[in-house]
Design brief:
- The complex is a heterodimer of chains A (165) and B (391).
- Chain A contains four helices and seven strands.
- Chain A is of the alpha+beta class and 165 residues long.
- In chain A, strand 4 and strand 5 form a beta hairpin.
- The relative contact order of chain A is 0.22.
- Chain A has a six-stranded mixed sheet.
- Chain A has one domain: Nuclear Transport Factor 2, Chain: A (Roll), CATH 3.10.450.
- Chain B folds into two domains: 244 residues, Alpha-Beta Complex (Naphthalene 1,2-dioxygenase Alpha Subunit, Chain A, domain 1); 103 residues, Rieske [2Fe-2S] iron-sulphur domain (Rieske Iron-sulfur Protein).
- Chain B is α+β, with helices and mostly antiparallel strands and 391 residues long.
- The longest helix of chain B has 14 residues.
- In chain B, helix 5 crosses helix 8.
- In chain B, the strands form five sheets. Chain B has an eight-stranded antiparallel sheet, sandwiched between helices. A four-stranded antiparallel sheet of chain B has the order 5-4-3-6, with no helix packed on it.
- Chain B is built from nine helices and 20 strands.
- Classes of the chains: A alpha+beta (165), B alpha+beta (391).
- The interface between A and B is large, with 38 and 38 residues.
């Protein structure tokens, strides 16, 4: 059970870091496991330009658990061997959070993602922005992402995306 | 004109790789092609649905302001103040009925007329605001698709489009009454010609997704139109029949009215690619940034008559299927980069599939033939003034 703000904040940070670590390790199963096992678990990645103008289109639009599972299939099975791979480093910083109901928390964080293509070896910024997350408290007290909206300040990507941001 | 030396092979199916990487050739392309006698799509009217809506765009560096005026008419201006040439509007899109230059406070209305400027008594004697509207390039509109040309000598738009008109109109839903869903924008590390050479043409061998979805295609028509070799594809879609690996099958579901021709692609010289695939309507506005970089704005649309469910379906399909992160196109993006690296080697890129005689150009092709690009290359060669070898 989470009893104090300090431990709650630490638990939320653990959710953020678990996602960053899974992505930077390219471990898509672990990325998926960080989401709640609910049918409407979701991940959206969208440019701030689209959201500011009320345009719902995303770079990734996974609005149900089935699509999250399909994204694991894209990366692990369908795209294997067809792209120039790149390393990423996610830097995340919790900026605010509040309790929405007994089982749900809302949090915001900033992110920046560096990428280093394996062939060129030159590091550059892939994207910056903020995560708008809903976090579900599990029966055992643990926390999982219910929904994540990655809102990118970056409106023109410097490269195609293989992995979620 | 500058004489550029480039030895162009005798065979129509060979393109010298130097053409993709030489800076002097790129500078000449900007003059002869991007500022020359070509029409360039820069927007679709549905990106500006309301009076006062505008979008800015740079056509190989030239800043444009495309706006819908207070009476609802779409107009294209150079995005530069008629006074000292300061960039007038910096936002990528928005809604304004007046544009004010912050430099000396010149104010323009949505029709481009200069309606205010402080202290005109200090200007040249006889200064008249009516002489200083925003300058405009030539533009024309085809089923809502806004084209610009920077030359006064370009033929009329319909003649320019020629036999690609029908496929393009059908791709624009038959009536051009589209509704904007949003953008995906990306820069590719590749020459603009490598992008256009490989975006419309989709190699089924590359697309693992096609194979996994039992989507081999091949059942369609590819033809070229006009001397510029605009490329049109029309193909029936055999939607996945075998066991699918996807848990959410709506990504490849077809709800549209057009099953006989589920897939259409129109690729216009020099850089425009548009596609209607399943229920995705996608216009790709592409422009070179330099010899080694092309920026592509993938704009996605619904139709104005779609009900809420259909808009939602198109949104879900458009976000995840095509484009720089899409299930069946992400690997294209990687090929753009790798082709550009490979083009820094000697010799020619050689087209094979669908070529019957290297000394002849054809205009009808099978869906997966790569020879459909060759009429465009012949036009490129002639515009650039490169001489084809005779032996």
């Amino acid at each position: 059970m989470i009893e104090t703000d300090m431990s709650l904040e630490a638990a939320l940070n653990a959710v953020l870091l678990a996602d960053a670590d899974a992505l930077d390790s390219k471990d898509m199963q672990r990325w998926l496991d960080n989401y709640a096992d609910e049918e409407n678990a979701s991940y959206f990645c969208r440019s701030a330009e689209n959201s500011e103008h009320g345009l719902a289109l995303g770079l990734m639009y996974d609005d149900c658990r089935a699509r999250l599972e399909d994204r694991v299939t894209f990366v692990n099975d369908i795209w294997v061997g067809t792209f120039q791979d790149y390393r990423t480093r996610h830097f995340v910083q919790l900026t605010s959070y509040h309790r929405a109901d007994t089982a749900t928390l809302e949090m915001r964080s900033n992110f920046s993602v560096f990428m280093t293509p394996k062939d060129s070896g030159i590091t550059q910024v892939l994207a910056a922005g903020q995560y708008l997350d809903s976090v579900r408290q599990q029966k055992n007290g643990g926390l999982k992402l219910l929904s994540r909206r990655a809102e990118l300040d970056t409106s023109v990507l410097p490269r195609y995306l293989v992995y979620p941001i | 004109m500058t004489e550029m030396k480039l030895s162009w092979p005798k065979n129509y199916n060979e393109v010298p790789k130097e053409a993709f990487v030489r800076e002097d050739i790129y500078a000449e392309e900007v003059k002869r092609i991007f500022h020359g006698t070509e029409w360039h799509p820069v927007a679709h009217e549905s990106e500006l649905p309301n009076a006062g809506d505008f979008k800015t765009y740079r056509l190989s560096g030239v800043p444009l302001l495309i706006g819908r005026d207070v009476e609802g008419v779409v107009r294209v201006f150079y995005n530069a103040c008629s006074h000292r040439g300061n960039q007038l509007e910096t936002a990528v899109m928005g809604n304004k009925t007046e544009f004010e230059c912050p430099y000396h406070r010149w104010l323009f209305d949505s029709k481009g007329d200069l309606v205010g400027c402080p202290n005109p008594r200090e200007f040249l004697p006889g200064f008249n605001k009516a002489d200083y509207p925003l300058a405009q390039p030539r533009f024309d509109i085809f089923f809502g698709l806004v084209f610009v040309t920077l030359s006064s000598e370009t033929e009329p738009l319909l003649a320019y489009l020629g036999d690609s008109q029908n496929t393009l109109r059908e791709l624009l839903a038959g009536d051009g009454r589209l509704k904007l869903l949003g953008y995906q924008k990306v820069r590719y590390d590749t020459n603009w010609k490598s992008y256009t050479d490989n975006d419309g043409y989709h190699a089924p061998l590359l697309h693992q997704a096609f194979k996994m979805l039992n989507w081999q295609g091949g059942n369609g028509r590819q033809f070229t139109a006009t001397k510029r070799g605009h490329i049109c594809f029309e193909s029936a879609l055999s939607v996945a029949t075998g066991p699918t690996v996807l848990k959410d099958k709506s990504l490849i579901e077809f709800k549209g009215q057009d099953p006989a021709v589920g897939s259409r692609i129109v690729s216009l010289f020099p850089t425009f690619v548009s596609t209607k695939h399943l229920d995705v309507i996608n216009l790709r506005f592409a422009t070179p940034i330099d010899a080694e970089t092309v920026e592509v704005h993938y704009a996605y649309f619904a139709h104005q008559d779609d009900d809420e469910d259909m808009v939602r379906h198109r949104l879900r399909q458009s976000s995840n299927l095509l484009g720089p992160c899409g299930l069946i196109s992400m690997e294209d993006a990687s090929i753009f980069h790798r082709i550009h690296i490979g083009n820094h080697t000697p010799g020619s890129a050689i087209f094979q599939k669908g070529v019957h005689d290297p000394l002849k150009l054809e205009s009808e092709f099978l869906q997966n033939d790569e020879s459909g690009n060759l009429p465009r290359w012949e036009y490129y060669r002639s515009v650039m003034g490169f001489e084809r070898a005779t032996a």
